[in-house]
Amino acid sequence: MFKMKLFLCVSFIISCSACGKNSGGDPAPEYLPLVRINDVQQLRDGFAPTTFHFVVSLDRTSSKEVKVDYATVDGNTNSDEYTKKSGTLTIPANSKSATIDIVVRGDSLREENKVFYVQLTNPVNAKITIGKGMGTIFCYGTYLPIDDAGYTSPSGYPGYQLKWSDEFEGYLPDKNSWNYETGANGWGNNELENYTNSSNNSFISGHKYLVIEARKEGDGYTSARLQTLGKKEFTYGRVDIRAKLPKGQGVWPALWMLGSNIATTPWPASGEIDIMELLGNEPNKVYGTMHWGNAGEGSTHIGGNYSLSGEDFSQKFHVFSIVWDSTKIEWLVDNQKYFTGNKSEVNGNYPFDKPFFFIFNVAVGGNWPGNPDTSTTFPQRMIVDYVRVFQ
Question: What is the pLDDT of residues 189-219, one digit of tens each?
Fold first, then answer.
């Protein structure tokens, strides 16, 4: 008898559910579709405007049209970064999405990325689950305002002729002079950066300055390393490089040279001339060094350093120079000599009488500078005005 009553009760509930009523006789509740808006990230580069397409979507189609109000909201943007917009968006019946288009103005200025939002309110025939879409404008333009203050070297010297120079007057580094080295293999020093050939990491600003930019990208770092192997190689002469340097714990800019025979005579036997190196935690001091030794072994080296008083090398341009002949290499900052490495001090094979090529790079982390910490800000930039070789 008990089993029979239970069966009749269950049958009654199923029957009522099928007819669209609950046990109290009321209509079954209508489940509204859920509406959300996506985030959009796009590059702003150059003067042409770009359009950010924000998709407003439903989790399922509905037999009724869905409406929702929207309006743009500033983040770290201002009134002329994008065209502000507001209105009501309609998603037709039996459709799942519609689009809100926001026009972002073109600009080649290199600056902090910009953020704005599209806010959804007042849904009709739907419920909002994600009501704010974030628009991120990647501002990787190739124009960077640069203060040109600082030391400038003369355009010539008695007894020397200009053999090669790069004044960085184009849009990108000259392919007839420069190669990109790429990769994230530690570069023999347990460095952290991934070197790229992207204009995110190297570009020419205002047809005047080469910019090498180290960036924090997620959990890692990107930067650039340019060299002249096979294109511009020199033995002896005077080298002047006018540059402004980055700073910060773990930031390691360098202007240097390697022996062009490095493929057949491995480092350090090929020789290394560090025209300038700086440890970012000591931004007022630069180092000049010469390295040599047996192939594949640790290097022997001698060098010196030069410090500024009351300022650091990120504030103004300075000229980093070597004067190199068959008997010695001299290091100078703003034409002030601070170290001389003599041939007589180099024991064993002397590699500094053969062609060398240039390398310009900004490393991040490594055995010598250590890694960045919470005090290090990014991006960090080395800005080169010119490189000149006199012989």
Answer: 999 999 999 999 999 999 999 999 999 999 9
Strand partners, 58: 35
Q: How far is CA 35 from CA 15, 279, 339, in A?
A: 33, 52, 69
Assigned token pair, 28: 């079954």
Q: Structural domain of residue 293, as residue ranges?
A: 162-390
- Gap between the Cα atoms of 304 and 32, Å rounded: 74
- For the whole model, what pTM was predicted? 0.84
Look at residue 343 and give its three-state secondary structure: helix
Per the document, the length of the chain is 391
Query: Per the structure block, which two tokens stand in for 30?
Result: 């209508």
Q: Is 324 a member of any domain?
A: yes
What does the pLDDT read at residue 191?
Answer: 98
Contacts of residue 159, defined as CB under 8 A and 6 or more positions apart, other chains included, come to none
- Start-to-end Cα distance in the chain: 114
Residue 277 annotated in active site:
yes
Catalytic residue (one of 191, 193, 213, 272): 272
Question: 384 and 344: one domain?
Answer: yes
CA 279 – CA 265 distance, rounded (Å):
28
Residues 239 and 362 in one domain: yes
Averaged pLDDT for residues 34-48: 91
Give the CA count within 13 Å in the CB-facing half-sphere of 182: 7
The predicted model gives 10-27 an average pLDDT of 45
Q: Are residues 289 and 357 in the same domain?
A: yes
Same domain? 234 vs 346:
yes
Please write the tens of the pLDDT for every residue from 127-183.
Answer: 999 999 999 999 988 999 999 999 999 999 999 999 999 999 988 899 999 999 999
Residues 128 and 172 in one domain: no
Give the count of domains, the chain.
2
Residue 94 within a domain: yes
| Residue from 329, 333, 184, 205 nearest 271 by CA | 329
Q: Which of 277, 282, 297, 330 is catalytic?
A: 277
Residue 320: which of 330, 311, 309 has the closest Cα?
A: 330
